[in-house]
Amino acid sequence: MRLGIIIQARMGSSRLPGKILKKLPEHGEKTALEHVVRRCLKVKEAAEVIVATTTEEADLMVVNEAARLGVRSFRGSEDDVLERYYLAAKEAGFDSVMRITSDCPCHDPEVLGDLVRKFTGSRADYASNTHERTYPHGLDAEIFTFDALEKAYREAEGKLYREHVTPYLYKTGVFKVVNLTQNKNTSDIRVTLDTPEDYALLCAVFEFLGDDFGLKELEELFEQKKWLSFITKPVIHKTFYENEKDEIDAAVKLLEKQDMCRAAEILRRENK
Questions:
Q1: Separation CA 172–CA 179 (nearest Å)
Q2: Measured between alpha carbons, how far is 126 from 109 in angstroms, rounded to an integer?
Q3: Rounded to whole angstroms, how far apart are CA atoms 43 and 39?
Q4: Are 200 and 228 in contact (CB under 8 A)?
């Protein structure tokens, strides 16, 4: 089996533009993308690491960063990320693909290796460590066969499936899906890079732990310095909804959480 890691990366970001080329820590030498790439290169089961970006002019910077780091890059559609993954995997000749996003600079190669073994040992079409979440936000990973990716590419329709790559694999009931969990649940830890608050937290993490740390050290740090979690407490995790009703229900709950009850009631009333 030729397993490849494809890192999804682009300069655009609604909440923190250019985030993947920010230095971690702030006055350090390595970019966020470099941390992701270097950690992925330590996954022994992977034959190659590829950075998949877009054809937008701004993402030439991503291509240049990948070249500096000594890994191949692929350029494809900005919005149809499923197509980008499919074409990148096809060009590279991968039998299976691990999907990593470039806003997760704290990946533990050992955890990624555990996911590979879960995937191969169960003969699954798709494996993840997020569907019953026990790992920190920011250690998210998925693996799927090229055959499953190709089927999704040919059959999936709509923004949810095309932009977010894998929902067709785990939502349709067509594929064998497995999930990796750990005994200790530390899913309350957030170490993903999506907002200025996230960047402040990650700078602190890398200042405390240096470049070479894993899940164990990360969990111990948050246990010892509980105040770290308060940095990102206002941050709302991005969630993708399948339909308008689910999205409106979530918006109502968010408004109520902010004590904006009149706005919540108007939204609820107008969408009965």
A1: 16
A2: 19
A3: 7
A4: no
The helix (H) or strand (E) run that includes residue 144 is strand 142-145
With beta carbons less than 8 A apart as the criterion, state whether 97 and 2 touch.
no
Domain-embedded: residue 257: yes
* 81 lies in some domain: yes
Whether 219 and 249 share a structural domain? no
Q: Please report which residue ranges of the chain form alpha helices under DSSP H.
A: 32-40, 60-69, 81-92, 109-122, 146-155, 159-163, 167-171, 196-209, 215-224, 228-231, 244-257, 261-270
Note the pLDDT tens digit of each residue in 217-248. 999 999 999 999 999 876 555 555 466 666 66
Same domain, 253 and 215: no
For 177-216, the pLDDT digits (tens) are 999 999 999 999 999 999 999 999 999 999 999 999 999 9
What is the rounded CA–CA span in Å between residue 171 and residue 152? 11
- Cα(47)–Cα(32) distance, integer angstroms: 22
Of 138, 154, 179, the domain-final residue: 179
pTM (whole model) above 0.85: yes
Domain with 220 in it: 196-231
Q: Which residues of 189-203 are buried (b: 16+ CB within 10 A; e: fewer)?
A: bbbbbbbebbbebbb
Task: Give the C-alpha separation, 53 to 202, whole Å.
Answer: 23
- The residue type found at 98 is M
Number of structural domains in the chain: 3
Q: What tokens were used for 207?
A: 């200042």
Measured distance CA(270)–CA(158) in Å, rounded? 26
> How is residue 236 written in tokens?
């709302």
d(CA 163, CA 194): 17
